[in-house]
Design a protein that fits this description.
Blueprint lengths: L1 H38 L21 H6 L5 H10 L3 E3 L5 E3 L1 H6 L1 H5 L11
Antiparallel strand pairs: 1-2
Length: 119
Amino acid sequence: MLEILIIVCLLGLFVIFKLVVPQLFVRRALKPVIERFRENKALDEGSALSMESLGLGPLPLAERIMHLRDYKPKALEALVQWKIVFLTEEGKLYLSEEHLAESALGQQLPHLVQGSNSD
């Protein structure tokens, strides 16, 4: 019986560390990604920038080996999926402040919305 309990606990810990913890890191990376768009003024299709120009491209292999995992690319992927960040035909990216404010993300995390009272 004790062995089964240990196995169940280990499986629970595995699920937490494999599924839940990375989601928390992605959520934490959302703010720096959004700030990069604002700092670079990539806020409409005319001012869209490449991932590399925004500093959101994949790290070189040497840096990936020496640093902890960077969750900003996953956060960017989520923002594109949630239709907060858009991709132009040229492959450039821009943040839609309107879509962010109207999104569930903007409602759940109002500090991400520019001009909110929690700044």
